[in-house]
């Protein structure tokens, strides 16, 4: 009986020691995790010096094979993504839009793309030298197709766009609770697509 009590006390002491040892290790792990988390956020270690916006622009122009004087509308934005500081650069040359993401510390080009775009700073609304029907013509076509007059509608929106190599107007308006959407060829006035949603 005496041996059983000694064995029981010994087991209890061993269990208490093991449990207190585990909780101490857990506390160390938590503080270590907090330190690593703070370091990952940049508060524990100073960030490397960033390259300038001019250097970023020069890298993007060089990669695109474009001279700086051939570029219009440049936009740069400093951002933080995937654990690093990056520059987002957007610019136009001719009818092409270029988008770059560049590492702000190393200057490494992380991603890029370019698309043919219509320069929306040129106003096609009145029917330019390319003989577009104009915003007023697009609105008239859409209203005629819907069988409505301008006094019957609200929230009219007419936007010029280039899609799939074709200039077009996107016309949207409401009549009561019904929404009308039209895509109209900017040169011919042909209705490319129409959508009517009844709410």
How would you describe the overall organization of this protein?
It is a single chain. The chain has 199 residues and is an alpha+beta fold. Helices cover 32% and strands 36% of the residues. It has helices at residues 2-40, 53-64, 134-146, and strands at 72-81, 84-93, 96-103, 109-116, 154-163, 166-175, 178-185, 191-198. The strands form 2 sheets. Strands 1-2-3-4 form a 4-stranded antiparallel beta sheet, covered by helices on one side. It has a 4-stranded antiparallel beta sheet with strand order 5-6-7-8, covered by helices on one side. Strand 7 (178-185) and strand 8 form a beta hairpin. It is flat, with a radius of gyration of 32 Å.
* Spatial strand arrangement across the major sheet: 1-2-3-4
Using DSSP, what is the number of strands? 8
Main β-sheet: number of strands, strand sense, barrel status? Answer: 4 strands, antiparallel
Helix content: 25-40%
CATH architecture assignment name of the domain at 134-198: Roll
What is the succession of H and E elements? HHEEEEHEEEE
Average pLDDT, rounded to a whole number, is: 77
What is the chains' assembly state?
Answer: single chain
User: Looking at the structure, what is the overall shape?
Assistant: flat
Beginning-to-end CA distance, first to last residue:
85 Å
* Poorly predicted ranges: 24-46, 119-129
* Share of residues in strands: 35-45%
CATH topology of the domain at 134-198: Nuclear Transport Factor 2, Chain: A
Helical element count?
3
| CATH C-level class of the domain at 134-198 | Alpha Beta
What's the gyration radius in Å? 32 Å
Structural class: alpha+beta
Pfam families: PepSY (PF03413)
InterPro entries: PepSY (IPR025711)
Signal peptide: 1-27
Domain PepSY: 51-111, 139-195
């Amino acid at each position: 009986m005496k041996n059983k009590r000694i064995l029981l006390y010994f087991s209890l002491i061993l269990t208490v020691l093991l449990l207190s040892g585990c909780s101490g290790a857990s506390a160390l792990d938590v503080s270590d995790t907090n330190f690593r988390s703070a370091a990952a956020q940049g508060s524990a270690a100073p960030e490397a010096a960033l390259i300038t916006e001019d250097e970023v622009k020069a890298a993007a122009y060089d990669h695109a094979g474009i001279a700086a004087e051939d570029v219009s509308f440049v936009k740069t934005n400093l951002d933080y993504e995937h654990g690093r500081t990056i520059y987002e650069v957007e610019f136009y040359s001719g009818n092409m839009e270029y988008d770059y993401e560049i590492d702000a510390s190393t200057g490494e080009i992380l991603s890029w793309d370019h698309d043919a775009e219509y320069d929306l700073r040129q106003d096609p609304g009145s029917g330019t030298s390319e003989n577009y029907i104009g915003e007023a013509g697009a609105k008239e076509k859409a209203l005629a197709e819907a069988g409505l007059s301008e006094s019957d509608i609200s929230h009219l929106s007419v936007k010029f766009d280039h899609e799939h190599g074709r200039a077009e107007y996107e016309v949207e308006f409401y009549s009561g609770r019904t929404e009308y959407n039209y895509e109209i060829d900017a040169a011919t006035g042909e209705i490319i697509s129409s959508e009517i949603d009844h709410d």
